[in-house]
Amino acid sequence: MELLPSKKVTGGKMRRRKTKKARKFSWSAIKRALSSGMKKHHLHMTCASSMKQTSGTPLREFQSEKHVCQGGKSLESLMRITYTASDFIDRGNHMTPTRSPRENLSAKWREIHGQNDWENILNPIHPWLRREIVKYGEFAQATYDAFDYDSFSDFCGSCRYNRHKLFDELHLTKHGYKVTKYIYSMTNIDVPRWLERPNTGETWSKDSNWMGYVAVSGDSESQRIGRRDIAVAWRGTVAPSEWFSDIKTSLEPIGDGGVKVQCGFHGVYTCKSEATRYNKLSAAEQVMQELKRLLNFFKGIRGEEVSLTVTGHSLGGALALLTAYDAASSLPGFDHISVISFGAPRVGNIAFRDKMNEMGVKILRVVIQQDIVPKLPGIIINKILRQIHSITSRLKWVYRHVGTELKLDMSLSPYLKQEFDLAGFHNLEIYLHLTDGYAGKKSKFRWNARRDLALVNKCSDMLIEELRIPEFWFQVSNKGLVFNSHGRWVKPCRDQQDIPSPFGEAPKLDFTA
Predict the structure, then answer these.
(1) What pairs with residue 338 in β-bridges?
(2) Is the dihedral angle over the CA atoms 384, 387, 389, 390 positive or is it negative?
(3) Half-sphere exposure of 272 toward its Cβ, with a 13 Å CA cutoff?
(4) Catalytic residue check, 314
(5) Which of 41, 336, 401, 426 is catalytic?
(6) One of 158, 185, 307, 314 is an active-site residue; which one?
(7) Cα–Cα dist 227/109, whole Å
(8) CA separation (Å) from 499 to 80, 140, 209, 481, 506?
(9) Neighbours of 74 (CB within 10 A)
(10) Which of 37, 198, 243, 489 would bridge with 33, disulfide CB 3.0–4.6 Å?
(11) Would the pLDDT of 489 be above 60?
């Protein structure tokens, strides 16, 4: 029966009153949650003496509400927040540590590194595996944190620290590895265009950029992880938008059996020139030469069990695959070769994938569901061809991913803004944050994840406003200028030991410390 006009108006008013009342309840609930509820019922990184979670009855009551607050966060997601803005005020010894336990992995390291393709330890994820993934992710992050982006610097494109200081400066000595070699590459794909012509006359190199490093586990760490581990970390692209303007998508052969890889990645990896100071040897030759030297020492002379773990983010993930391919093809002495990549694109064709599997290289690809880069190259054509897989499954020109995938989801973290941000989706610190909070495919974000949340906003603006962490906070103080004794602001001279040298001697392999 049709309602009279007066009844329609009344009904509309009633609905508005109900909506207003519901909105009022949601805001009051949020206010109570932020002021008292969260302090009572959640862990904080402050006040370490009270590290326990009390009764969750009020929490369950709040979680049943689905009202949405400002910024697109539901009341349920707000109540899952373990940390608040007050937790980021320095309270000295009363703050809880960000380090996780360091268990002895010697009996299970092969399984942790993919001997069985991570079967039964990925979903739900084994905590030892999660910590290993974060460790290698931090090795990859170091290539960004130490890179000199300053276009006014005489050393733009180099590493800001020498290899002896790298882990000390970036607080990575906790992992027990030592850097033995820096890797340089001839490339302008992965850096802004201003790096091709810096705003200064003379530069350390007009042809090369610092691209990564080789590191080795020390004696005590090797004992804990069950073998001598050689890690190679590659730097990736500066911004995902550069993929669209600079990257090439054609395939080129690199071996027998129709094995082909993307020519842009291969060019970065193999390009060299006698006219350059730092790339008389290609990046590939530099890293293979160092791996052979380390393998001869630890395997040949000491008789130790030696593994190779290659890591990288974005373009670095592609270079990690090429490194593993080369090592598996030419250095048979390794007891195990694995790759842990983050946000890596497709690298080669089906024959490349099959060859990697045949050689026994174990690959774990960490991807974020919202990140577009792992869908490249061939984001459109591969999606179409997937629909006719029975016809195209053996085509040699079709790109294919290699290895086991660990897929993360931005929406699961209660600390991240739910906004469309291509750069944020591809940010390596976001990857590490989500990895630290990952428990399994059907699990919520871990309430007891320990990795420092402030790192998320190091080079992004992805943390929710409630935490009050400045965006893009990681930068050189005063943009590199210093106040000298004469009262002038000047560019300091780089320490002599931090100036990149193409003629550095091979380090002595002393790992007794």
Answers:
(1) 309, 362
(2) negative
(3) 14
(4) yes
(5) 426
(6) 314
(7) 8
(8) 47, 22, 13, 18, 16
(9) 17
(10) 37
(11) yes
pTM over the 0.90 mark: no
The pLDDT value given to residue 70: 42
The answer to whether the CB of 203 falls within 8 A of the CB of 494 is no
- Among residues 229, 371, 436, 498, the one annotated as catalytic is 371
64 labelled catalytic? no
**DSSP 8-state code for residue 195:** G
Residue type at position 90: D
Single out the residue of 36, 42, 38, 44 nearest to residue 54, CA to CA.
Answer: 42
- Cα–Cα dist 248/269, whole Å: 14
Query: Is the pLDDT at 44 greater than 50, yes or no?
Result: no
Q: Measured between alpha carbons, how far is 344 from 319 in angstroms, rounded to an integer? A: 9
- Both tokens assigned to 240: 């995902």
Q: 190 vs 96, 174, 203, 244, CA distance in Å?
A: 38, 29, 19, 11
Whole-number percent of the chain with pLDDT over 70: 70
**What one-character DSSP code corresponds to residue 470?**
P
How many Å apart are CA 18 and CA 48, to the nearest integer?
A: 43
Q: Which two tokens stand for residue 116?
A: 């069985």
Task: List helix spans (H) across 67-146.
Answer: 75-79, 109-112, 127-145
Q: Which residues pair with 234 in a beta bridge?
A: 212, 312
